[in-house]
Amino acid sequence: MALSSHPANLPFAARFMSKDLNATAKDAEGRLEAAHGDLTGDTGEKIKGQAKQVQASAMQAGSDLKQGLKSAVGKLGEATSDAADKM
Fold first, then answer.
1. What is d(CA 8, CA 18) in angstroms, rounded to the nearest whole number?
2. Domain range annotation of the chain
3. Is residue 42 pLDDT above 60, yes or no?
4. What angle, rounded to 10 degrees, do the helices at 43-86 and 12-40 form?
5. Which of 12, 46, 60, 83 places its Cα 20 to 30 Å from the Cα of 18?
6. What average pLDDT does this structure show over 23-32?
């Protein structure tokens, strides 16, 4: 059975990689747009490119935060299980 491209149908790790790739692509797009705006003297295009870079940073930070929280919850669950086993 083939997986569809919808993020909800992807395995957990693939969803994170997908979001990281989206952030990386958005950053690259922003860098190119800002550089093109800088070369052509188009301030509006340069600002739009910089805004895309900021958006990409926010996307990556959100993904990193989510991964960190999931890791912390997992470790808390393990510690709780270990403590219960020692009782």
1. 11
2. 21-80
3. yes
4. 160
5. 46
6. 94
SS (H, E, C) 7-69: HHHCCHHHHHHHHHHHHHHHHHHHHHHHHHHHHHCCHHHHHHHHHHHHHHHHHHHHHHHHHHH
Distance of alpha carbon 58 from alpha carbon 54, whole angstroms: 6
| Separation of alpha carbons 32 and 38, rounded Å | 10
Tokens (6 digits) for 38? 């800088």
Report the distance separating Cα 31 and Cα 21, nearest Å.
15
What is the pTM assigned to this prediction? Answer: 0.63
The CA distance from 34 to 49, in Å, is: 4
Rounded CA-CA distance 57/31 in Å is 12
Structure tokens at 87: 């009782």
Residues 6 or more apart whose Cβ sits within 8 Å of residue 20: 60, 63
